[in-house]
Amino acid sequence: MDAFSLPFVQRGLIEILLLAIPCGLIGTWIVLRGLAFHSHAIGTATFPGLVLADGIGFSAALGAFGAALGFTLLATLIGRSKRTGTDSVTALALAACLAVGVILASDVFSSGANVDTLLFGSLLAIDSGDLWLAAGAAVLALAASFVFGHHWLAKGFDPGAADRMRSGSTAFDAALLTVVAVTVVATLGAVGALLVSTLVVVPAATARLFASRLGSLQIASVLLVAIEGAFGLWLSAQTDAPPGATIAVVSGAVFLAGLGFRALTRRSGMKPAILAAALLALAGIAAGCGSTGSGGDGPKVVATTTQVGDFVSQVGGDEVDLTVILKPNTDPHEYEPRPSDVKAVADADIVFRSGGHLDDWTSDLISDSGSEAEVVDLSEGLPVQLHGEDEHEHGHEDEHAHEEHADEGEHEDGEEIDPHWWQDPVNVRFATGRIESALADRNPGQATYYQGRARRFDNQIGNLITGIKACLRKVPADSRKIVTDHDAFGYFTNRFGIETVGTVIPALTTEAQPSAGDLAELEETIKREKVKAVFPESSVSPALSEAVARDTGASTDYSLYGDTLGPEGSAGETWLGSMKSNADAMVKGMTGGSQSCFGGASD
Amino acid sequence: MIEWLTDPLAHGITLRALTEIAILGAVGGAVGCWVVLYEISYSAESLAHGMFPGLVGAALLGLPLLMGGAIGIVLAGLVIAVIGRLTPDSDDTAIAVVVTTLFGLGVLLALSPDSPPGIQALLFGDPLGVKDSDLVVTGLIAAAVLAVLWLFHDRLLAIGFDPSAAGPGGISPALVRALLLTLVAVTVLVGVQGLGNLLVAAILVGPAAAARVLTDRMSTMISLSVGIALVSGIAGLYLSFHARVAAGAAVVSCLLVAYLAAATFAALRDRIRRRSLPPGLPTRPEGARS
User: Fold this and answer.
1) What's the CA gap between A245 and A123, in Å, rounded?
2) Burial A260-293 (b: 16+ CB within 10 A, else e)
3) How confident is the model at residue A228 (pLDDT cuts 50, 70, 90)?
4) Which residues of B touch A341 (CB under 8 A)?
5) How far apart (Å, rounded) are the C-alpha atoms in residues A128 and A62?
6) Under an 8 A CB cutoff, do A539 and B287 touch?
7) Are the C-beta atoms of residues A316 and A434 closer than 8 Å to each other?
8) Confidence bin at A277 (pLDDT 50/70/90)
9) pLDDT tens digits, residue range B83-120?
10) Which domains does chain A have, with CATH numbers?
11) B19-275, which class in CATH?
12) Residue A299 DSSP one-character state
């Protein structure tokens, strides 16, 4: 059980034990009243609140709670029409909330990727705010059950009662819906929007298979949340998997075991041994999956993104013990930390951050893991800094409305800088210098080793710059125009004199969608400017770029490395390789394939 | 004015999007009536997440993603039908258990280093990203779904209004429910590819709910629902084209306006009918449901 000796696992354990009270108590009512869809929808419907909180700059929990209450009100309003079933009302209200969220994210704020990360909570990144929220929800659930429990019970174990809840809308039902909203919002930080039901529905449904009296049902539900949560957390620490997904699978398996057990005992009178055996088997699988990491000598260093990881390994070589958190196949927008990530941060001597919203979650990870590492934010003090919004070409007048928006505390200069700084090699030279001096300070014995490697890397960067410049000369000046998926290449185009004529996706969050009018205009621009290629990004779904390309006769054959480097063995495995590949892809695209760079590095 | 109407048609992107929305509006409007009658809107909203493990499994085994997603989502629908039968509570509970468990399983499988990045997003489309070949596939599947609905119309109707109805010689209610969930699963799969997840739930539930407040007859409801879906879908795309609003969100907004208009109309109609009753007769109590 040594997993529970790690401080961040302990905090996750406290969180899940606190959450067990509201999730178990209120989960019982959710199951009895048929509110499973309602509770799931609340979690998802927080999206517009998160976009607003991010855009205007207030607390995400407040935004989520406001949106949850807004959803409940909307559902109550729509539910006044007595012919519409509860489920349909929930679906309609949810669609409305999501549509508002998408419009806010795409057309009003041009939201950054951090909106997405708020939808993905984790038990491994619990801060004191989450704990207080869970404790508050627990107290509220206890108090509400005590005061309103018998009123709620008066409606009986009647699933049809849910239908009357919103239309009847008595004060007691309003109280229940409010407590459900608070419970769901408190759960978000622990498991994220898509897995809320794992804590508020599945355990209560499992308990319902066996308990028929309210008291025993509630006690069993609370205990099940606590046990499944604690076991899932322990299992995730053993298998190095994200705890939310692990708990989801564990609770689902327990429910299935319970269902099978009940069916068997009803038919043939078999004994509880099966349930125990199933659980033991699960634990056995878990124990077999444990894995350990290892590394080289030197200071323990964590890099957040794939690019930063590459820079550190270029400078540090064998004399750093490097852990890179994001893997090439992880979507930075949907990242959920794994136990080994948090442990690496907790034990690290230095954490190198890329900065900006691409790895915003690291600040939580560092503070929540109790790490005493020196944090080096490589986006600070760079020689070239671009403002992301200035690069947006295809927007409308109100696109600049968000320029006045102030960022939350962590960003020093209070303005939103385009975080893709490594697309300009000049910035990477500067960052390499900072990495070298940070490593040398920590490990003076190897200072000359680091210096030698940094100098070699700097030479390679110099060659890269001349190489790309020479190659771009093969492209006629009036053809140096590109259209990309989303604007991750501002630094690259700025450095090498390429014009970004437009982008396909209006904002950085994956929830954003373009409008038909914007895409139609983009197509006209592409035809007018005779842009020969649209460049999909290797980690973004290419459907929209392909549609635009088909209509305009532009090519989508060449994809670019944007937010992450490529997997092992691909051309973009290292940053140098990815830059060569991007330059080659752009030149091929701009010349219709007649020219290439670095011997066709993009294949 | 004429240009306002024809401008969007001159662009391949909007033309294809209009066709896709028209096809999916027709099938979604029809399937949606049964979704609303059987109270399984949750599945319309969430089943797409249930295909996650199938998707990752297919990627790891080197099979076509669409095949993995299809197997995953149809299996999810069937498991929901089985669990819904075995548990005492509403189908919603079964849907919650199945979808969260499968989603969790998908997340764990996707940890494998061989899994491609952002795999879940690969099958989530956008109406503006539709290909000509998508239109053909969507049209064929839509026709198949509508044909099955037409064949089983009477059984679906009998069991929808009286779940215990098991006519002699007929198919058992459990099988009919499983069949319906399979149809919903197939519609959701085609829908998320063509329209994205946000729009699928709205197009499956919105038009049917609007039609439901206007009429009690199932056949009238289906025609109304299909009509509302078509009109709102097309209006939404015009809105997206001219007012520059995200396409999916614009269609959803139009569907909601259609529902609110229908609900207001129905409420006014009820009030007028009640007023025309002779005084003294009891009217329907406020909290009652039809």
Assistant:
1) 11
2) ebeeeeeeeeeeeeebeebbeebeeebeeeeeee
3) very high
4) none
5) 15
6) no
7) no
8) low
9) 888 877 778 888 899 999 998 888 888 877 777 766 66
10) 2-288 (1.10.3470.10), 300-391+417-462 (3.40.50.1980), 468-590 (3.40.50.1980)
11) mainly alpha
12) S
**DSSP helix/strand/coil, A196:** helix
What lies within 8 Å, CB to CB, of A13 at 6+ separation is A4, A230, A233
Give B-chain residues touching A92 at CB under 8 angstroms. 202, 205-206, 209, 256, 259
The interface pTM score, or ipTM, of the predicted complex is 0.85
Q: How far apart are CA B59 and CA B21, in angstroms?
A: 29
Contacts with A, B 122-151, CB within 8 Å: 122, 124-126, 128-131
The tens digit of pLDDT for each residue in A48-74 reads 888 888 788 777 888 888 999 999 888
Count of CB atoms situated within 10 Å of the CB of A135: 17
Nearest-Cα distance to chain B for A309, in Å, is: 17
Place of tokens 């004529």: A501
Give me the residue from A202, A329, A520 closest to B116, CB to CB: A329
**Are residues A75 and A95 in contact, defined by beta-carbon separation less than 8 angstroms?**
no
**Digit-coded pLDDT (tens) for B202-259:** 899 999 999 999 998 999 999 999 999 999 999 999 998 888 888 888 899 999 999 9
* Contact by Cβ (8 Å): A296, A318: yes
CB-CB: which of A82, A208, A242 is closest to B89?
Answer: A208
State the angle between helix axes of A202-210 and A214-239 in degrees (0 to 180), rounded to the nearest 10.
Answer: 130
